[in-house]
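Practice problem: Antibiotic ABC transporter ATP-binding protein
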Amino acid sequence: MKQFFNILKYAKPYKHFAVGHIISNILYALFSSLSFIALIPMLDVLFKEKETNTEVTEKLSKPVYEGLSHLNDFYKDYMSYHINLYAEDDKSKALLLVVSLIIVLFLLKNIFGYLANYFMVFLRNGVVRDLRNRVYKKTIELPLSYFSEQKKGDIMSRVTNDVATLQYSMLPVLELIAREPLMIIFTIIMMLIISPPLTLFVFIFIPLSGIIISKVGKSLKRKSDRVQKEQGAILSILEETLTGLRIIKGFNAEEKFDSKFQESSSRSYRFSNKLYNRQNLASPISEFLGILVISILLWYGGQLVLVDETLDGSSFIAYMGLAYNIMVPAKAISRGLYNIKQGDAAAERIQEIIDTPNPLKDAKNAIIKTSFDSEIIFDNISFKYEDEYVLKNFSLTIPKGKTVALVGQSGSGKSTIANLITRFYDVNKGNILIDGINIKDITTKSLRQQLGIVTQDAILFNDSIKNNLKLGNENATDEQVIESLKIANAWEFIKELPLGIETNIGDSGNKLSGGQKQRLSIARAVLKSPPIMVLDEATSALDTESERLVQVALENMMKNRTSIVIAHRLSTIQNADQIVVLQKGEITEQGSHIALMNKNGVYKKLVEMQSFE
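Answer key — structure tokens:
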């Protein structure tokens, strides 16, 4: 139930709909109960023997209220008085009056029932929307370190399947909170008015059924949790399959992945069967308990009518209608308890993402930095992803307008520098300063606004060329977009496309070649026009021809900018102002290309291992 109350917090913005829902439900429950009470005078008109004119005249005297214990008699006498006053001894006229009263009561009941559902639609769908938006927002706020420990498919499952599970299991219970308890309260009041002894059985039944149902539903949360986790696993396999389909086919691994998917699907099948079979017990159990209590009421009520004669037949029939009326909300509540148990696991998985702390959250008084003026300083920093440090006591100063290249073997810590300057991760020791300000004291948004990033993998989106480029500059004009493409050496092939910059490039840009995609990612960084560029092995995945075109684009882009170039192919960084050689997370050499070649050290060995064009 704790998770249910957590979900209720999201209903606060829609409290005006909740008020309308509750008021409509109060009136719905009231008219629903009165509609059964209205049956008593109708049954009296239908089944009582024709009364003499003298009896009618006697009944025309207005009844007097004699206390709560005689409320049923007072109600019957009051109704009879007004019916007889209107109809005199004409039973057809009396019947028409009572039937009209019942029609009006049922009409009002259904009008307010519709209004209650009308308000609930906005409340329920609003909660689902806000919850889904909150989970997505938190997902994109969390640091990259969080996703390195999670399966993408499982996160997708939480944002989609788990929210859908809440929508169809836990959130419908919001409709029951006001309506069903009010129905029970009003119905019990009417039942007490008719016969307190009979109503005693109802008070025994409600807690008894609650105990039985809760015992059956105890394992629902655990079973639901297994189903949702397995759905996450299925999505993970599907995501991996679609991402790596070229490799799967190339290595003839279709059967292996098919087997893996079928195993997960079979587990989901077994877990779902157990969950839904347990859930299906709710309806038959509550229905059996309902018919059991109705049978007891029939037996005991029959005794009161036929033997004790303390209850008349018309009141007993109306009472049985009320007893049935109380079974409907009781059954709905029991079903709601089952749904809460099922939705509890989904809510817990969603709340787990929402409650995950963000270690990279902006400091309380973080500075909004709008410019880059002097230098970047890496002040004796050390960093580890898990147990071993990948950077150790790293110190470097990059003056404004200079190009610094980081080289070294794989695993030497080059790309880690890019992750740290962009604050995808925080350093474990030391500080990174921009213009003398620790980047932890700068808002993440304004820090990244100063940076342009071009990675080895050109990450593009299923949209037009223009919208891909405008990712970092929403206000850019078409002319600025075209100019950035020219700087990136990409306009030549884009202007030949049928729709030009409006051309959709497909999922991950798969309609373009590797070199074309990389030049678009360079153009995107150029259009953002940041003072600092971070190039993380931007040419390492390209063929020679594409590399030449991209290299020209990079040189155009780096003019008059501060650049941090992480290079695998050393031919691309010979003109850098300073080259820093990394080995096992530490600086072993630094200087210009010529100076390092003259040293005959690590850098020269790296150069000799590669062929220059």
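Discussion: The radius of gyration is 38 Å. Students who identified this feature from the tokens alone can consider the problem solved.
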